[in-house]
Amino acid sequence: MLRTLDRTLALAAAMLLSIAYPGHCATKLDDSALHISSSPLMNGSPFLITLSLPSEALSITGDWQTHHVLFFPNSDHRTWFALAGVDVELAPGSYPLTVEANLKDRTQQTLHQQLTIETAPYLQVPLTVPDKFVEPSPHALKQIAADQIVKEKAFASSSPARLWSVNFLPPLPLAPESDSFGNQRLFNGKIASVHHGLDYHAKLHTPVAAINSGRVVLARPLYFEGGCVVIDHGLGLMSVYMHLSKIQVAVGRRVRRGQIIALSGASGRATGPHLHLGVRWQGTYIDPAKLFELQMPNTH
């Protein structure tokens, strides 16, 4: 009799648990629920991750390289998105992307996808600039060190909320690019570096627009960058505008996509009047031109 009662109680407890936590019987998500927008992926490629779920999720997190990928939901919380990027200097190969889904039914699902990174065809470009930018004086070195502290502070944190919406737009829609992102640059034959941005032909004092909405985190002249503005778009994404002749925004100010933030110039280490646009994702430099091609979700 006692054994029968114990079995009845155990069965009743199991039924209560299944009612309280129905998700424990949920079917495992298929890795095909993950979709990557850009193909093929190359050094410097930004890409949009889309996760499609059969039910609502409370939160989604991901890991890519050394980055903690931050997702944002659609209105139904069943489709989630994240913007990520491939560092311009990452070696080609296959790298894992891992995504954790915390579902509303209290279950957690893990999805995996191997991303193949191909080599982008970047060129080597020799440039001539004043010697002071190749071999700075002791006084200039102090300024460069001080500038580095300013930049590190500006880049140190990004809003945990997404400040941008819909597609990113070029800062100068009518200006052609004059130097490709990712090119190997030789300054006076002495210094080799990777070009971490996109240059636009622009006459002096041409209005420069914000590529998307965000908050200004740096607005001042720097030694190499000249007049410089940095906008935080949230979730680790920032845009950098360099060689400006006039800055028209201040730190802390919120800006809209397409809003005029500065005038172009030739300040800092520049071979002539132009605008340098850089885009950083969690410290990784990605190709602005490829970012403009991505179709962003409008979740508002």
Keywords:
300 residues; 3 helices; disordered N terminus; 5-stranded mixed beta sheet; mainly beta; 22 strands; 10-stranded antiparallel beta sheet; single chain; globular
SSE blueprint and pairings:
Blueprint: H1 2-20, E1 34-36, E2 41-42, E3 46-52, E4 57-64, E5 67-70, E6 72-73, E7 79-85, E8 93-103, E9 108-118, E10 124-127, H2 138-155, E11 177-179, E12 184-187, E13 191-194, E14 197-201, E15 207-209, E16 214-222, E17 226-234, E18 237-247, E19 254-255, E20 260-264, E21 274-281, E22 284-286, H3 288-293
Parallel strand pairs: 2-9, 10-12
Antiparallel strand pairs: 1-3, 3-7, 4-5, 4-8, 6-7, 8-9, 11-14, 12-13, 14-21, 15-20, 16-17, 16-19, 17-18, 18-20, 18-21, 21-22
- Number of beta-strand segments: 22
> What sort of overall outline do the alpha carbons produce when their principal axes are compared?
globular
What oligomeric state do the depicted chains represent?
A: single chain
Number of helical stretches of at least 4 residues: 3
Sheet-strand content, in percent, reads: 35-45%
Largest sheet: 10 strands, antiparallel
Order of helices and strands: HEEEEEEEEEEHEEEEEEEEEEEEH
Percent helix range: 10-25%
Which structural class should the secondary elements be placed in?
mainly beta
The residue-averaged pLDDT reads 84
Q: Which regions contain 5 or more consecutive residues with pLDDT less than 50?
A: 1-5, 8-27
How far apart are the termini? 62 Å
What value does the Rg take, in angstroms?
24 Å
